[in-house]
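=== Structure Prediction Worksheet ===
Name of assembly: unnamed complex
Input type: mixed (protein and possibly other molecules)
Chain count: two
Listed entries:
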Amino acid sequence: MIRLRYAAPLAALVLLAFLLWRGLALDPREVPSPLVGKPAPAFTLPLLESGAGGKSFSPSDMRGKVWLLNVWASWCVACREEHPVLVELAKSGVVPIVGLNYKDEPEAARGWLARFGNPYMKSAVDADGKVGIDYGVYGVPETYLIDAEGVIRFKQIGPVRNASVRCCRPRHRKAPPRENHCRAALHGADGHGARGGP
Amino acid sequence: MATAHAADHEEAARARALAEELRCLVCQNQTIADSHAPLAVDLRKQIDRQIADGKSDREIVSYMTDRYGEFIVYRPPFNATTFLLWCGPFLLLAFGALIAWRVVAGRRRAPAPLSDAERQRARRLLE
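=== Predicted Assembly ===
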């Protein structure tokens, strides 16, 4: 059968092309987070803002609101890329952004915010990176979307490039609290961020 | 003093062994034992701390995979998802061998006897 002789290598080629198309499109730098769908790890950290006194921040402070936790540092070059996007997002007021100042010097961090703008309602200082480890942070910047119950819903690895924010108006007032909140979807330049892990 | 020393050596050996089984997520082709990345340094410290706390190897690895996922374990597990990764090369080899065998077997088979018309054509061509 002549046809089979030609069909078999052709099929193998098509299969190989398909595998390469899928495989080469994957980015090993984007490690899926096993924390998506799980409660955001608890912590209590001091605030960056001077004059904050003994005040601190915990994720539980944000219960009842959908919010973003943005991991940033003054030494991080890529953070400068996403910063204007975050500043715009903060101005629109759709979703509060809390900063996690990761392994940084407070003076340098404050100076950086003064220079480039401050989109954060607060910034928590993670000086030794221990909270970062709990959140599976392996690079900066990273951004977590956390829902009103404190569950991590999405993790963006790398800079936020185009913040596309969709706000769902509640369908009825009497709907349970879970449905009455705004969902902010963040996209990197190629239209997707890190999705949930296994 | 001698026993304290021995315990230290054992702990250090355990820490090293664990660090060599975990991937540095920054320099992804290195283990956290070899990597100089700040994250690798932090994670090595975590391992030391947890060993000192008396955690087992399995608990320490779970600590890492809970936060960073399966990818942080350098050696991929053998399960339904990674079956192709482990067995793929051998399957391809077997497939290639099968094709080679069929081609060689095909060549060894004598060609079918010629019909009269074909034999005359062959004679004409050979003259």
